[in-house]
Every structure is written in C-alpha cells, then in structure tokens.
C-alpha cells in the first residue's frame, strides 16, 4: 500500500494542481488565460523532489513503526 493523500498520491496531487486547464467560458479564457507551465516548471520540479522525499521517509517510518515491538 503506497503513501496517499485521500484517494491519490502526493505526486498526483502536485501534478494536478499545476496542470494546464482552459476555462470553459470563451470570454474568461480570452481575457484571463495567462497560465503558462513554463513559468512554474522549476518550482514544480523542486516540489516534486521534496514531496517524493517526504513520501519515501513517511513510508520508511511507518514500516519501522509496524516492526517495532509493542
């Protein structure tokens, strides 16, 4: 069983937050669609690396707790 936040992994959550999506309303899309992934690429890469580290360490701690005598 993997490390999850609700029904998805932490990595899935990060990628979902930064994915490009277009507003459905054409007026809003025309005037306010200024999101460009390239503007956030370095931030996302850093965040993915940090989330991966936290996820791996959390799994390591949980497994150690399972094996610890009670």
Describe the structure.
With 70 residues, the chain is mostly helical. The protein has one domain. The protein has helices spanning 10-18, 26-32, 41-67. Helix 1 (10-18) packs antiparallel against helix 3 (41-67). The radius of gyration is 18 Å and the shape is elongated. The two termini are 22 Å apart. The mean pLDDT is 86.
Brief characterization of the structure:
The chain is mostly helical.
Topology diagram in text:
Blueprint: H1 10-18, H2 26-32, H3 41-67
Keywords:
0% strand; 61% helix; 70 residues
Quick one: how many beta strands?
Answer: 0
Shape type: elongated
* Cα Rg: 18 Å
Q: Which consecutive residue ranges, at least 5 long each, have pLDDT under 50? A: none
Distance between the termini: 22 Å
Percent helix among the residues?
55-70%
